[in-house]
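About this split. The held-out portion is used to measure sequence recovery: a designer receives only the structure tokens and must propose an amino acid at every position. Recovery is the fraction of positions where the proposal matches the reference. Here is one held-out target exactly as it appears in the evaluation file.
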């Protein structure tokens, strides 16, 4: 599959483009930037054949099958819809949009154009995700009681970072909170009912949430607690708690580490996973879905559901109140 990349963001340059180039089913055929010099520089550095000085030029290229969109969050809707209208399949960086309403419009555009849409949560395409699900389903850790997730890092000194522009979709919930939130949904296998979130909003950083902690309510008394931040020491992980045991995943979202299962019989390590690159897996699974060889593991509508939860979390943090998740309670 011939990919075009819209934008020269760090995640594209350092992770996604090299992964597509390493994949079995894809090649990066073109890259576009807002200026031709930046596009040519990046193309030369990464051995990409074509460089465009405008996003529209890349979308007009008939040799491009799919696009990867790593633009700032507020641009996801515009360029996803334009890509769909140009007949390109879309892999859009997380979060899919600024809110669920935008995500609905984006996915409708892709459906109408007959193209595939996927949100770039690469960690979900790692084989340990399915292994965790199978352990839970087996009953080995008993009945599911709670999930805890975290993703924090400290980038507060980088005052000009796009993550600190509220109107661009900045803030820790958008940037890293979406990881544990999405993880809880697939682990529990249901949509949440309500969210209560407390956040640190920093005027030094455009008024965005630099740290957030929350409780997400699911049915049957199952709860998910999480924290996320861009002004805290680095850590990331997920813990799944059952009545008879628990599962602990360190480096849950960016690494390929083994994970540990704790039961009454003791503990064991699941893995290793042969240094599987999440981004390579994402590229190949997307391509196979486009070629009709397999169904993409996460339907486009999953992005809408995740944004509904993000919407509830942001509203709760701003209003200091418990917020029902739209859709689940209608």
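Reference sequence for scoring:
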């Amino acid at each position: 599959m011939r990919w075009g990349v819209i934008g020269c963001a760090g995640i594209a340059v350092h992770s996604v483009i090299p992964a597509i180039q390493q994949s079995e089913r894809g090649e990066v055929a073109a890259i576009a930037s807002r200026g031709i010099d930046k596009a040519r520089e990046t193309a030369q550095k990464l051995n990409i054949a074509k460089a465009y000085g405008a996003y529209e030029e890349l979308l007009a290229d008939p040799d491009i099958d799919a696009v990867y969109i790593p633009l700032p969050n507020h641009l996801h809707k515009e360029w996803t819809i334009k890509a769909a209208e140009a007949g390109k399949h879309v892999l859009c960086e997380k979060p899919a949009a600024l809110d669920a309403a935008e995500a609905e419009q984006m996915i409708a555009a892709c459906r109408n154009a007959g193209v595939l849409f996927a949100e770039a949560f690469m960690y979900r395409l790692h084989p340990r995700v399915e292994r965790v699900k199978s352990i839970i389903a087996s009953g080995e850790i008993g009945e599911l009681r709670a999930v805890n997730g975290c993703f924090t890092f400290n980038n507060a000194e980088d005052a000009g970072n796009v993550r600190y522009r509220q109107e661009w979709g900045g803030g820790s919930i958008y940037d890293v909170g979406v990881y544990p939130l999405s993880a809880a949904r697939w682990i529990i296998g249901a949509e949440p009912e309500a969210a209560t979130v407390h956040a640190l909003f920093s005027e030094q950083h455009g008024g965005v949430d630099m740290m957030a902690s929350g409780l997400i309510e699911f049915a049957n008394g199952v709860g998910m607690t999480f924290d996320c931040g861009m002004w805290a020491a680095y850590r990331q992980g997920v813990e799944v708690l059952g009545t008879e045991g628990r599962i602990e995943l360190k480096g849950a979202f960016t690494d390929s580490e083994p994970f540990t299962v704790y039961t009454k019989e003791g503990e064991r390590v699941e893995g290793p996973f042969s240094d599987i690159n999440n981004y390579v897996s994402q590229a190949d699974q997307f391509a196979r879905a486009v070629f009709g060889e397999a169904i993409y593991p996460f339907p486009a509508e999953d992005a809408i559901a995740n944004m509904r939860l993000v919407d509830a979390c942001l509203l709760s943090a701003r209003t200091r109140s418990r917020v029902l998740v739209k859709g689940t309670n209608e």
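Annotator remark: The chain has a mean pLDDT of 96.
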